[in-house]
């Protein structure tokens, strides 16, 4: 009995230590991320790796989600005789929720995993240790530019996703089904506020960028330096980042949109 | 890969992202609308009941959007709702214009409809629209209908 108690006590202490280390790592990444602005070359390379390579999946899935929203929204709205509100429905659901959230989930799968695997393999290949030997801070040289690049890429990708989704909704709703184009756009402009809706969507995507980048880098940096360790770390990144995104999304939505 | 080429692609990506943001703000949002409504004048209107009217609801005259509802507060002297209307400076309305709360469609949002009167003097900032008609409240309507029926039955 005593042994079980002391075991769970130790487990609790270990988790608390993990949380503290995570928080310290996060602050360090933020600080060094700002500092890595002095080395834009590294950041630009990482934006290319993280942002441009994610572009195709984000654009295509944005368009497809827009198609689906257009179809489903039309079938539901038709029951109430308000097909004209289709534009508003598509735009609001994309800008407020689907744009930031789905982009962040895809981003965790596409860019987060590759960050974790890259950092984990660097650790397994003892490159990180070698850097420390040469008195180069691996967090500043390797992790911080990746962190900053993810922060920059994520809101831009979310905006592209939402824009492609609106375009997809337009193609299906107006061009295919035949909702009136004027009503589609005017209802959208009447109902979407550029600060309350679009601005908050951007804030959300920035927060998700922080989340994905931090989880991916932390998990990769803490990974066991073995092939299995890296494999497990990659899985952990996707699971933890996705859950964190969805949980944070609920909190952010409750904070942002509850007053209206 | 050539460093310059990478820079070019990253630049393209960033530009594309910002273009998407501008597209959302201007085309899907009301950013362009909020610029054109910079020249406005504010009038007030008191309603007995505003129903489901919300701030940022449209003010229309003859179906055309001529302004927005900017504020709604409860006036505890008159026990009425005091609605602030911000009207587009391009449009002038006579002082005896009347305001109604209307609903677009069966389940649509509520807006304020202005019907111009015949006065020669025009509304200016701070003026009050005196002739108002409240929102239709379904319960009151049903109540009136039922009382009407009861009255008819009693008269027989």
Mean pLDDT of chain A: 90
Shape of chain B: elongated
First and last CA, distance of chain A: 53 Å
Residue share in β-strands of chain A? under 5%
Would you identify the regions of chain B where 5 or more consecutive residues have pLDDT less than 50? Answer: none
* H/E element sequence of chain A: HHHHHHHH
Oligomer: heterodimer
What is the overall pLDDT average of chain B? 83
How many strands, what sense, and barrel or not for the largest sheet of chain A?
none
Strand percentage of chain B: 25-35%
The structure class of chain A reads mainly alpha
Low-confidence stretches of chain A: none
Largest interface: A-B, 34 and 29 residues
Terminal residue distance of chain B: 95 Å
Radius of gyration of CA atoms of chain A, rounded to a whole number: 22 Å
User: How much is the radius of gyration of chain B in Å?
Assistant: 23 Å
Shape of chain A: elongated
Compute the number of strand runs of chain A: 0
Helix content of chain A: over 70%
Order of helices and strands of chain B: HHEEEEEEEEH
């Amino acid at each position: 009995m005593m042994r079980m108690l002391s075991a769970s006590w130790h487990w609790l202490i270990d988790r608390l230590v993990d949380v503290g280390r995570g928080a310290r790592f996060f602050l360090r990444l933020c600080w060094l991320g700002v500092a890595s602005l002095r080395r834009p070359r590294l950041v630009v390379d990482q934006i290319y790796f993280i942002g441009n390579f994610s572009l195709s999946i984000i654009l295509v899935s944005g368009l497809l989600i827009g198609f689906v929203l257009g179809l489903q929204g039309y079938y539901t709205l038709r029951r109430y005789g308000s097909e004209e509100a289709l534009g508003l429905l598509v735009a609001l659901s994309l800008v407020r929720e689907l744009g930031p959230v789905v982009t962040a989930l895809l981003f965790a799968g596409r860019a987060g995993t590759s960050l974790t695997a890259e950092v984990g393999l660097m650790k397994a290949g003892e490159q990180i240790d070698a850097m420390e030997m040469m008195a180069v801070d691996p967090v500043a040289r390797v992790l911080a530019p990746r962190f900053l690049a993810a922060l920059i890429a994520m809101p831009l990708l979310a905006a592209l996703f939402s824009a492609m989704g609106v375009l997809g909704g337009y193609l299906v709703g107006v061009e295919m089904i035949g909702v009136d184009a004027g009503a589609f756009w005017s209802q959208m402009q009447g109902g979407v506020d550029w600060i309350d809706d679009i601005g908050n969507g951007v804030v959300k995507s920035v927060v998700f960028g922080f989340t994905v980048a931090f989880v991916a880098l932390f998990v990769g940096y803490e990974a066991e330096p073995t092939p299995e360790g890296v494999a497990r770390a990659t899985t952990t990144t996707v699971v933890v980042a996705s859950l964190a995104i969805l949980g944070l999304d609920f909190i952010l939505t409750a904070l942002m949109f509850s007053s209206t | 890969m050539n460093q310059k080429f990478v820079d070019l692609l990253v630049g393209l990506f960033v530009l594309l992202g910002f273009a998407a943001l501008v597209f959302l703000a201007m085309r899907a949002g009301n950013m362009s609308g909020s610029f054109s409504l910079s020249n406005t004048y504010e009038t007030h209107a008191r309603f007995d009941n505003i129903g489901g009217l919300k701030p940022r609801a449209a003010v229309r005259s003859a179906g055309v959007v001529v302004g927005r509802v900017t504020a709604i507060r409860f006036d505890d002297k008159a026990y009425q709702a005091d609605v602030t209307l911000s009207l587009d400076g391009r449009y002038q309305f006579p002082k005896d214009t009347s305001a109604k709360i209307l609903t677009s469609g069966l389940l649509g949002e509520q807006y304020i409809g202005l019907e111009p009167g015949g006065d020669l003097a025009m509304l200016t900032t701070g003026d009050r629209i005196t002739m108002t008609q409240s929102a239709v409240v379904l319960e009151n309507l049903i109540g009136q209908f039922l009382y009407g029926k009861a009255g008819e039955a009693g008269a027989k």
